């Protein structure tokens, strides 16, 4: 039995009512398990709870359960359909269902959403407990612990999910704010986990726990580079693979801090692209924060151990800039970014700007060509008139002279 606010006092609702309207003893908004709201299209202030769906005079199938109560999914009368889970005679005239067959609705209007053969609204229970946003006859966003399949079937999500595509913990599409959605590579769904469980081959990215791009990688960041490999494998010099042993000129295997990695022999440093080991040289005077440079004047290592080589490859500082992460002391663009003018920018935003620039150039070209064509047309017309006028003048002079 629910409670309602009556002049500042918590007062019990009527029997079988789980939620009733404030200040109204009989205005039930949601019933207790085993009961449903009476057959009203809209629950008003006098709505009452009645027995849940049972196959009988009105309903042919009670195939959906919401909050412990059964609702109708197909009516006995083939000309009507379940509205908010109840078979009502006047549904053959309403505007909620746009296509029905065999006592069920197959397509709902924009004022409702399709679910298990019936049309439901987000304004009224039980649709209000399932769907948060409806559009085009479908539920665009479900509420906690529920999901609706593409063909309009209700899905009772795993208790850890806020949304799903099928029952079970591996089919979540949304998670609570204190959880991460752990997804396999290329998957749209996954499981909701604690942030501290996003380990061993996965990394946290916003509200998601995503797999590392490198096979055999145990730890990684927002870049495509691995920072620690599983088992006895070594992180390659460029951080893009996990190797059984290190190879290459001046490349050796080492285990700093228990992490196996391929590194350069003493006296050598990795090139900025990590493709080889090179002999470092002194840096130019305007690069005081860099301890060593390559022959082109790019920074190979920082003077301070807690600094990273920045994306301009000439300065050192703590951390990295926007859309960049550190890979063994070098700032690299993250997976969704590209390096442009020494800074990491969103690949999507860059593509949009380039498309806009091309479109703008095309429009400008059309305008220029159009202007040129217009000018040439005017010029030829003007020239034609001048020539015609000159011919007439010559003819007139000749006629007078005769």
The total tally of domains equals 4
Structural class by secondary-structure content: alpha+beta
Biggest β-sheet description: 4 strands, mixed
Morphology: elongated
Please provide a brief summary of the model.
With 402 residues, the chain is α+β, with helices and mostly antiparallel strands.
Give an account of the 3D structure.
The protein is of the alpha+beta class. The protein folds into four domains: 1-51, no CATH class; 56-156, no CATH class; 212-278, no CATH class; 280-351, no CATH class. The strands form 20 sheets. The chain has a four-stranded mixed β-sheet with strand order 24-23-26-25, with no helix packed on it. Strands 1-2 form a two-stranded antiparallel sheet. It has a two-stranded antiparallel ribbon with strand order 3-4. The chain is elongated. The N and C termini lie far apart (122 Å). InterPro entries: Furin_repeat, Giardia_VSA, Giardia_VSP, Growth_fac_rcpt_cys_sf.
């Amino acid at each position: 039995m629910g409670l309602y606010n009556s002049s500042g006092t918590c007062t019990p609702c009527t029997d079988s009512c789980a939620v009733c309207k404030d200040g109204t003893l009989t205005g039930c908004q949601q019933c207790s398990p085993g009961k449903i709201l009476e057959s009203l299209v809209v629950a008003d202030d006098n709505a009452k709870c009645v027995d849940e769906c049972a196959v009988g005079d009105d309903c042919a199938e009670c195939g959906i359960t919401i909050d412990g109560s059964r609702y109708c999914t197909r009516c006995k009368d083939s000309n009507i359909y379940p509205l908010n889970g109840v078979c009502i005679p006047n549904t053959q005239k309403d505007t909620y269902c746009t296509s029905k067959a065999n006592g069920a609705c197959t397509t709902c209007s924009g004022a409702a959403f399709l679910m298990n053969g019936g049309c439901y609204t987000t304004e009224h229970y039980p649709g209000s407990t399932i769907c948060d946003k409806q559009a085009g006859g479908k539920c665009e966003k479900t509420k906690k612990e529920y999901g609706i399949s593409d063909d309009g079937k209700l899905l009772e999500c795993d208790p850890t999910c806020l949304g799903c595509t099928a029952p079970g913990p591996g089919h979540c599409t949304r998670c609570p704010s204190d959880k991460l959605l752990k997804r396999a590579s290329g998957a749209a769904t996954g499981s909701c986990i604690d942030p501290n469980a996003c380990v061993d081959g996965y990394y946290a990215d916003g509200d998601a726990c995503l797999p590392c791009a490198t096979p055999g990688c145990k730890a990684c960041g927002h870049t495509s580079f691995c920072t620690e490999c599983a088992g006895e494998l070594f992180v390659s010099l460029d951080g893009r693979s996990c190797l059984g042993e290190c190879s290459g000129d001046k490349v050796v295997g080492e285990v700093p801090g228990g992490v196996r990695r391929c590194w350069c022999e003493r006296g050598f440093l990795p090139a900025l692209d990590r493709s080889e080991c090179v002999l470092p040289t002194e840096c130019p005077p305007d690069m005081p924060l860099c301890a060593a440079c390559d022959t082109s004047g790019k920074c190979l290592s920082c003077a301070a151990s807690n600094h990273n080589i920045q994306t301009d490859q000439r300065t050192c500082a703590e951390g990295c800039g926007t859309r960049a992460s550190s890979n063994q002391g070098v700032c690299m663009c993250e997976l969704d970014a590209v390096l442009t003018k020494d800074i990491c920018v969103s690949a999507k935003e860059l593509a949009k700007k380039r498309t806009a620039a091309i479109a703008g150039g095309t429009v400008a070209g059309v305008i220029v060509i159009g202007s040129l064509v217009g000018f040439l047309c005017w010029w030829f017309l003007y020239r034609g008139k001048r020539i015609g006028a000159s011919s007439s003048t010559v003819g007139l002079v000749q006629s007078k002279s005769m």
